[in-house]
Amino acid sequence: MAELTPSAHAPHKERLLWLVAIGFFMQALDATILNTALPSMAEALGESPLKMQSVIVAYALTTAMLIPATGWVADRFGTRRVYGVAIALFVLGSVLCALSPNLSFLVAARVVQGVGGAMMLPVGRLAVLRTYPRDDFIRAMSFIAIPGQVGPLLGPTLGGWMVEYLSWHWIFWINVPVGLIGLWATWRWFPRGALVAVRKFDTAGYAMLAFGMVAISVALDGLSGVGLGMALVAVLMVFGLASLASYWMHALRIEEPLFAPELFKVRSLRVGLLGNLFARFGSGAAPFLIPLLLQIGLGLSPVSAGLMMLATVTGSMLVKRIAVRTVQRFGYKRVLQVNSVMLALMLASFGLVVPGMPTWLLLLQLFIFGGFNSMQFSAMNSVTLKDMEGENASSGNSLLSMVQMLAMSMGVALAGALLTGFSDMWHLQAGDRMLAIRATFVTVALMTLAATLVFSQLDSDESVRPAPDAGDS
């Protein structure tokens, strides 16, 4: 664990770090424990496992929609109060998820959970930023990041074990005791903080941006046949795009927009955000598709699938150690272009998986994919924020977090639409689902290649500088 300097040893400061770490752990665990359980949840709820993407989309989209408002809400109502409400909503959403009798109820419960999740980490990070001096902030954030690394390590296997030996409900019940401890500790130890001047909130701009994100994501999800007619899908897509365009024109003419247009004058930010969006169509869909491949396609048990996915986590963690040195040696442009191609090839390689292939080969495939995926995230996040300074660093970080969650939502929605489209086109029955899964992997791999065109806009001599903390999600 990261050690803090003696100046940071005040008890309330250490307790704050543990509090924020609890929130980070719940989010990281929830993000990975659910994927392995989706096929079993589909069976229990009487749904097709190929149409469970709405469970993931609802959470990711809610988080993306609320991230731009979290800073203002924390300033307006206080970090202590907002952090407590965030944990309470996350716990309430978890209870509702565990009690869900059908898919529609579960999706609504995930929205409640997403409201809490959207505020937990950003507000916790903000409280740490205001409590620790700049010299200690990086070490403090390193401490908080540890639970975020433990969550993905435990999540797949724990989720598989729970659905196989208990029931899928326990992947949500597990959040309750952890959340209640966090609530009690927040009330007892979370610093109240000094009053902060609250700037005017761009309500109109936020409404346009939020509606645009929701409309486009729901339209994409509607392509998978969740009950939306094609006419409604088309209308939502048009209005979503119009809303985003209106936000841009609105931001150009007011003094304090949600995200200042001046941010986009920085080439690395522009390229990094667009690259994140396109690259994550594939990498964001993978955590949804891989458990389907292992359980529906290969017939593995939930526990076995969870254990297999540890290879992906292991590859990811090992590559983190060499990511910075690799970028320093070859530069952002070359690393991101080459790595985007390799990531696409690894995604496409899952389309070659067949029943009976050697276990060691599949484990190696998952391990290599995890490595390239981690390299992509690290380089993309770093290049996006490396030239952000002062107040722009905070805005850029919020914008990146929003794009990350939006891209994951869109990636999973597209994967669901592709699974349904291939199944309907080829009139596949339950026993033939493997063909649709393999075709979907190849298609999302092709979409990932689009990121190479975006990253070609980087300067060849793009310098390598430490960027503000952006996470690695």
UniProtKB/TrEMBL annotation:
Superkingdom of origin: Bacteria
Keywords: Cell membrane, Membrane, Transmembrane, Transmembrane helix, Transport
InterPro entries in alphabetical order: EmrB-like (IPR004638), MFS (IPR011701), MFS_dom (IPR020846), MFS_trans_sf (IPR036259)
Keyword Manganese assigned: no
Membrane topology qualifier: Multi-pass membrane protein
Major location category of this protein: membrane
Subcellular location: Cell membrane
Membrane-crossing residue ranges in chain numbering: 16-34, 54-74, 81-101, 107-128, 140-158, 170-191, 203-220, 226-250, 271-294, 300-323, 335-354, 399-423, 435-455
Domain (Major facilitator superfamily (MFS) profile) ranges: 16-463
Pfam families assigned: MFS_1
PANTHER family recorded: BLR6921 PROTEIN (PTHR42718:SF46), MAJOR FACILITATOR SUPERFAMILY MULTIDRUG TRANSPORTER MFSC (PTHR42718)
Protein known as: Multidrug transporter subunit MdtD
Organism of derivation: Comamonas guangdongensis
Lineage: Bacteria, Pseudomonadati, Pseudomonadota, Betaproteobacteria, Burkholderiales
Gene: mdtD
